[in-house]
Every structure is written in structure tokens, then in C-alpha cells.
């Protein structure tokens, strides 16, 4: 009895080892592999899903035309998706797995800065190009020549939100509630606070409160905020927390407006938040309602295929992936050696000066960060994100 | 004014800790088993409440029976409690009882409980996907404001429910025959069956009580914080466990006092200090209490503990 168990165990282990050894084999020279490091489970699953859907749509487009043409030869593209569970440590593991086991040419994602900052470090150290579609924190690409992004930065977004709120609400004072464990939320909250106090004088951010990522009760923080009586509350939080924060603030008797940031812009915001979020504003990357040209075409196709209006992340993933594909094409050839190919792609990415994306034109000035416009949208009674104004960097 | 608002908030959140802590304490009191799956039973309770409510109410892509929210609530509460207690009993039957039969050490049962919790979480993730569920509104929300203090009807219901559950459990355990049997098993698991008391029945009854309280907490929580996700029970369950230990695990009064105490400390820290320091301060205070009284506020020193 004992012996058989032992034998079974050994056989199982041998099989498992064999499986590991097999991984990474079967490389086909006629395909180009691109990795996706996405938030498929965890706190923000809708973000990962939107990214994956957009990527799948793009892949079908290319492969149905016979593949991507590089230097006169057509290559099929293959997308490898890895789940980073919306955790910083898992994002690094996912990146390393894509680099060392899946041998991808470049990596798209992670989306959220919390994951993109550590994953960017891993990609830079391993000399693999990475493009984050949605990350807005400066640290993601800072001093990392291998890391790029398709989104604007928080030092630009913070003032956009502050200026818009000051104008729209006629606000003199503000309050901030942010997620202390999220690099994106914390960074943006601090930028906003500095900007607001520069504009309206010291002490005009009357409450600056934080919470943890897994928190569901914000009543203590909100009670302090409501007691400080701000003209509006700035909430640079993920959409799932926004829904709870807005509802609880109303329960505590807060009647004023909220101002949000691009992390609000998920297709799931309105299913979670419902009527309480109607009429609120947030700064974001693009406005689906009233879009034109290529953007409208993308929205219509996505909507027809997946039955909902694509959010920022979907559109930005589309842009980020096309950016990488364009770089692969512009490199002019595909190297057999994966390391040399990655270097080619990175250099080609760095050479792109201007890129016409569906989320607007991106201008790169020698860094991985694009210069692009932000929009402010308002949530309409039908739950659509309606364009209010567009702000471009000077 | 702000002080009273914080007080009310603390009462509400403390109620959830107390309700969940009661489940830990009941099972521990009878079996000397720390049922680490309890936080996840609470999560399952919230999901059951969601499915029952959507089934009765309609919406969310289901046709439903189209009942009114009030009637839905009246049916959802008992249905959720019954179904959640079935989950608790199933865990007991399939995981804890076989181990007990084989005379496994208590440590292995506790590890099994941890695994059961993870299985519930990840089973839910596999079954329903990672996307969150938005709990339908079952009660017309009314916000009352008296001189700067806002309170919703739901908050009052939560607090009243926690206190009512405490009174009921205290009555069952201290005044009824079955409660006496529970206390007996806690005292001596081997002598009690010799007196003709059916051990398994009492244990199943304990799990029914504890899990139905988790189910009740689940539905109230889902109504107060209407976003459900598979991991929602992990952190709150863990904190409620700490509350139960601080109150003196195994004692019903301890669970309720510990739960409210944790609620007050957490909200109190945020009210006075920057909110970043909440968990650091809250748990330092609790550590201080345990330092002074290692068995918890109402606990009695025992020679065997896990």
C-alpha cells in the first residue's frame, strides 16, 4: 500500500517535471508572440477583461488578413494572457513568466500603476519592452528605457481635475479620500492636494483622508470629511470603491458633488454604483459618447461583439497593442534570437515620435511617456460618460 | 455632533464584527475548534442572499418572480439563514466530522478549516467569475438627520439585529436543554455521550446556529455595502476572529463585547488620528488587552488550547 502510494507520487512528480520541461518548446518561427499582463481576477477584474477583449479583437483583425507584415513577410500574431490578480507581487511573477517561459517579444500591461510600477522594473531589468495602457503614475516609466505607456501622467491629470472642479463647482475648498495602498491613488491624491493648495492657498484641502484597498466601510473618514464641509470631494479611487464611497457619503448627509479620476472610467462603474453616481464628473482618457472616426468604429465593433460600450482600458489597450505592432513593423525584420528582437522592438518604439491612437494623438519626446489630451466627462442619467471638456498639455 | 456620528458608525460596523464573532465563539465553545472557514461562510451567506433576492425580485438578467422589495426581504432573511446553515453543516459533515471520527488532533481540524475557507473563496471565483455583484436594494433607504447626525434606517436595523441575536443565543445556551448539552460537550467531550446525549446532533445544531448568524450578517452586510466579491469574507472574518479572542473566545458575551470594541477602536482611531494609522493603532490596543488578560475579557484560563 505504502509502496504504491510512493510510486504514484514519484510518477506524478516526474510528470510535473516533464510538463515544465515541455513548456517554452514548440516555438514557431512564423508567429510573433506578445504577452499581456492583466488584472483578470482580484479587485478590478473588469479592467483585465476589457483589455483582453480589445486585444482579442485586434488579433482577429490581423490574423484574418494573414498576419502582420514585417519586412515583406507575414507573421501570425499570438497573444499570451497572464493574470496578475491585481497584486503587485503577482504582476512581477506574471511579467517574468512571460519573459522567460513564454518568450514574448513585448508585454502589454499591467494596467493599474500598483501593478505596472513593479512589473515595469522587472521588464526593464530583463530588457523586454513593456507598454502599460492605463498606468498614469510617473514612476512606471521613470528611468526605465524599456518601459512605455499609452496614457497621460498624473502630474498632468491632477491639475486637470483641480482646474475643472474649481471652475465647474465654483469651489474654494476640497476634500480628498484615497487608497493608501494603491500607488496610483496615493500619487494622484498628493499631486491634487499640492495643485489645489497652490491655487487656493494653504489649508484649502480641508480633509485629506485615506483607506485600505480591502476596506468596505468608509464611514469614519467620510464623517470627518462631511464635518469639514468641503465644496466637493476628490476621489481618485478604483470604480468598485467609488460605488461604496459615494453611497456612504450620501448616507452621512453629504449633498455636494464628487470629482473623480480616470480609475472611475470602467464599464462596471454604473452597474455597481447605480443612480447615486449620476451627474458626477471625472477626468479620463476618452469619451465614448459622441466619439467620431476610428474611435467610433472601434466602439461600435466592440459594442456589437461584447455587448457593452468599451471603457478607457479597452481603448488604451487597443492603442498600446497597435503601438507595439507598429514598432515591430518599423523594425523592418524579425530576428531569430528573442533578445535581439526585443532590442529591435524597443529601439523602434523609442523612435516613434507621433502615433494617432483612438484615444487621441500621442506625441513622444524621447521618453516612454506620451503627450496627450485628457477629457472630463459627466455621468449622464442613462449612465453614459458624456464629454464635458478636453484639456491638452501646453 | 461629530462624536455622536462616529459613535453610530462604530455601532454599525461593530455589529458585523459581533455577528461574525458569535459564530466563531459558538463553534469554539463547543468543539474547541477555531472554524477559520467562518468568514467565508459569511461571504457565502451574502451570495446566497444575493441569489435569493434576485430570484424573487427579478432584474440582473433574470426574470424572477417580480415580488415587491418588502416581501423579498421578508423571504430572503429566513431563506438565507437556512441555506447558509446548510453550508455550515455540509462543511462539518464532509470535512470536520470524518477527521473527528479518526481521532485527528485538533491542529489538523483547524488546518482543514483554513483549507475549507480557501476552497469556498476560490470555488466561488471559479463558479461565478471575478466580476462583482451589485446587491439589489431591498429596503427603501431613509436618511434621518438630527442636528448634524445622519442615520439610515438600515443602520438601526443592523444594530438591533446584532443585539437581538446576542439575547437569543444567550438564552439558548444558558436556559435551554440543548444549550446545557452544548456547555456539557465543551466541558467534556468524552463523558457527555455516556450520559445519553447525542454528540453529533448537538454539534450539528451548533453549526446551524453559528452559520445562520453568519448568513444573517451576510445579508445585512450586503444591504449596507452592496458590492459582493469572493474575498469579502476573508479580512472581516479574520478581524471578527480577533474580536472573539479579545472578548474571550468561547463566551457569547465576549464575542459581542469584542465585536463592538473592535468597531469602536477602529472608528475611534480614524476619528482622532490620520486614517492611515487605523489598523496599526487598533491592533496595538487589542494586543495591549490580550497582554493584560491573555484569555480575553470574559475568558477563563484552560489548560488545553490550540
Task: Specify the structural class of chain B.
Answer: mainly alpha
Radius of gyration of chain B: 19 Å
- According to CATH, what is the class of the largest domain in chain A? Alpha Beta
Give the overall shape of chain B.
globular
**Can you write the helix and strand succession of chain B as a string?**
HHHHEEEHHHEHHH
Radius of gyration of chain A: 22 Å
Largest interface: A-B, 33 and 40 residues
The assembly state of the depicted protein chains is heterodimer
Short summary of the structure?
The complex is a heterodimer of chains A (394) and B (306). Chain A is an alpha/beta fold and 394 residues long.
Describe the 3D structure.
The complex is a heterodimer of chains A (394) and B (306). Chain A has helices at 2-22, 45-64, 88-100, 113-125, 154-169, 183-200, 219-228, 239-251, 269-273, 293-306, 312-331, 338-351, and strands at residues 31-38, 68-70, 73-83, 106-108, 130-132, 147-149, 174-179, 205-211, 232-235, 258-260, 281-284, 354-357, 360-364, 370-371, 374-379, 385-391. Chain A has 394 residues and is an alpha/beta fold. Chain A has 2 domains: 32-151 and 293-372, Rossmann fold (3-Layer(aba) Sandwich), CATH 3.40.50; 154-284, Response regulator (Rossmann fold). In chain A, the strands form 3 sheets. A 7-stranded mixed beta sheet of chain A has the order 8-7-9-10-11-15-16, with helices on both faces. A 6-stranded mixed beta sheet of chain A has the order 2-3-1-4-5-6, with helices on both faces. In chain A, strand 15 (374-379) and strand 16 (385-391) form a beta hairpin. Chain A is globular. Chain B has 306 residues and is mainly α. Chain B has a domain at 15-132 and 143-230. Chain B is 71% helix and 4% strand. Chain B has 10 helices and 4 strands, in the order H-H-H-H-E-E-E-H-H-H-E-H-H-H. In chain B, the strands form 2 sheets. A two-stranded antiparallel sheet of chain B has the order 1-4. A two-stranded antiparallel ribbon of chain B has the order 2-3. In chain B, helix 1 runs antiparallel to helix 7 and helix 2 runs parallel beside helix 4 (106-128). The longest helix of chain B has 33 residues, at 69-101. Chain B is globular, with a radius of gyration of 19 Å. The relative contact order of chain B is 0.21. The A-B interface holds A 40-43, 45-46, 49, 180, 209-212, 214, 216-217, 219-221, 223-224, 227, 240, 243-244, 247, 250-253, 268, 271-272, 274 and B 1-2, 5-6, 9-10, 12-13, 125, 129-132, 134, 141, 143, 145, 148, 150, 152, 155, 221, 225-227, 229, 231-232, 234-236, 266-267, 270-271, 274-276, 278-279.
Amino acid at each position: 500500500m505504502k509502496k504504491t502510494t510512493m510510486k504514484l507520487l514519484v510518477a506524478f512528480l516526474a510528470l510535473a517535471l516533464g510538463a515544465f520541461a515541455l513548456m517554452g518548446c514548440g516555438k514557431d518561427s512564423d508567429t510573433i508572440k506578445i504577452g499581456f499582463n492583466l488584472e483578470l481576477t482580484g479587485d478590478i477584474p473588469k479592467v483585465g477583461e476589457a483589455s483582453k477583449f480589445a486585444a482579442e479583437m485586434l488579433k482577429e483583425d490581423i490574423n484574418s488578413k494573414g498576419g502582420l507584415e514585417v519586412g515583406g513577410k507575414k507573421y501570425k500574431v499570438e497573444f499570451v494572457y497572464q493574470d496578475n490578480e491585481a497584486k503587485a507581487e503577482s504582476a512581477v511573477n506574471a511579467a517574468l513568466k512571460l519573459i522567460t517561459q513564454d518568450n514574448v517579444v513585448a508585454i502589454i500591461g499591467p494596467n493599474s500603476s500598483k501593478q505596472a510600477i513593479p512589473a515595469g522594473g522587472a521588464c526593464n531589468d530583463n530588457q523586454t519592452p513593456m507598454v502599460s495602457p492605463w498606468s498614469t503614475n510617473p514612476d512606471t516609466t521613470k528611468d526605465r528605457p524599456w518601459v512605455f505607456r499609452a496614457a497621460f501622467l498624473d502630474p498632468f491629470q491632477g491639475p486637470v481635475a483641480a482646474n475643472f472642479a474649481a471652475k465647474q463647482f465654483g469651489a474654494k475648498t476640497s476634500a480628498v479620500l484615497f487608497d493608501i495602498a494603491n500607488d496610483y491613488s496615493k500619487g494622484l491624491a498628493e499631486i491634487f492636494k499640492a495643485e489645489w493648495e497652490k491655487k487656493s492657498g494653504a489649508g484649502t484641502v480641508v480633509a485629506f483622508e485615506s483607506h485600505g484597498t480591502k476596506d468596505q466601510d468608509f464611514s469614519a473618514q467620510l464623517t470627518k470629511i462631511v464635518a469639514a464641509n468641503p465644496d466637493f470631494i476628490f476621489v481618485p479611487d478604483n470604480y468598485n470603491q467609488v460605488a461604496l464611497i459615494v453611497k456612504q457619503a450620501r448616507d452621512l448627509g453629504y449633498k455636494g458633488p464628487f470629482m473623480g479620476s480616470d480609475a472611475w472610467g470602467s464599464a462596471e462603474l454604473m452597474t455597481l454604483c447605480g443612480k447615486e453616481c449620476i451627474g458626477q464628473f471625472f477626468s479620463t482618457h476618452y469619451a465614448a459618447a459622441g466619439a467620431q472616426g476610428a474611435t467610433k468604429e472601434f466602439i461600435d465593433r466592440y459594442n456589437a461583439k461584447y455587448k457593452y460600450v468599451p471603457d478607457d482600458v479597452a481603448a488604451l489597450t487597443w492603442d498600446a497593442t497597435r503601438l507595439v505592432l507598429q514598432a515591430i513593423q518599423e523594425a523592418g525584420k524579425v530576428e531569430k534570437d528573442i533578445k535581439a528582437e526585443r532590442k529591435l522592438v524597443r529601439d523602434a518604439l523609442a523612435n516613434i515620435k507621433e502615433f494617432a491612437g483612438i484615444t487621441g494623438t500621442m506625441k513622444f519626446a524621447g521618453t516612454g511617456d506620451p503627450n496627450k489630451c485628457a477629457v472630463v466627462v459627466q455621468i449622464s442619467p442613462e449612465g453614459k460618460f458624456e464629454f464635458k471638456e478636453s484639456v491638452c498639455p501646453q | 455632533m461629530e462624536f455622536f456620528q462616529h459613535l453610530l458608525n462604530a455601532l454599525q460596523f461593530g455589529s458585523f464584527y459581533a455577528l461574525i464573532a458569535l459564530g466563531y465563539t459558538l463553534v469554539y465553545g463547543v468543539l474547541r475548534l477555531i472554524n477559520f472557514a467562518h468568514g467565508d461562510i459569511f461571504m457565502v451567506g451574502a451570495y446566497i442572499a444575493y441569489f435569493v433576492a434576485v430570484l424573487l425580485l427579478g432584474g440582473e438578467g433574470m426574470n424572477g418572480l417580480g415580488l415587491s422589495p418588502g416581501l423579498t426581504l421578508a423571504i430572503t432573511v429566513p431563506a438565507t439563514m437556512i441555506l447558509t446553515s446548510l453550508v455550515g453543516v455540509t462543511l462539518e459533515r464532509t470535512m470536520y466530522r470524518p477527521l473527528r471520527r479518526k481521532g485527528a488532533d485538533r491542529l489538523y481540524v483547524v488546518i482543514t478549516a483554513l483549507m475549507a475557507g480557501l476552497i469556498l473563496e476560490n470555488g466561488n471565483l471559479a463558479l461565478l467569475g471575478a466580476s462583482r455583484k451589485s446587491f439589489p436594494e431591498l429596503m427603501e433607504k431613509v436618511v434621518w438627520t438630527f442636528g448634524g447626525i445622519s442615520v439610515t434606517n438600515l443602520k438601526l436595523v443592523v444594530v438591533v439585529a446584532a443585539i437581538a441575536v446576542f439575547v437569543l443565543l444567550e438564552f439558548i445556551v444558558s436556559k435551554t436543554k440543548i444549550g446545557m448539552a452544548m456547555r456539557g460537550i465543551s466541558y467534556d467531550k468524552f463523558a457527555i455521550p455516556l450520559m445519553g446525549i447525542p454528540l453529533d446532533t448537538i454539534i450539528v445544531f451548533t453549526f446551524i446556529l453559528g452559520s445562520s448568524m453568519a448568513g444573517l450578517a451576510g445579508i445585512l452586510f450586503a444591504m449596507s455595502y452592496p458590492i459582493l466579491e469572493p474575498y469579502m469574507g476573508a479580512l472581516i472574518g479574520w478581524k471578527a476572529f480577533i474580536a472573539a479572542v479579545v472578548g474571550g473566545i468561547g463566551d457569547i458575551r465576549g464575542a459581542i463585547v469584542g465585536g463592538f470594541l473592535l468597531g469602536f477602536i477602529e472608528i475611534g482611531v480614524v476619528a482622532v488620528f490620520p486614517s492611515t494609522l487605523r489598523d496599526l493603532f487598533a491592533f496595538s490596543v487589542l494586543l495591549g488587552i490580550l497582554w493584560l488578560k491573555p484569555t480575553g475579557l470574559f475568558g477563563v484560563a484552560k489548560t488545553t488550547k490550540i
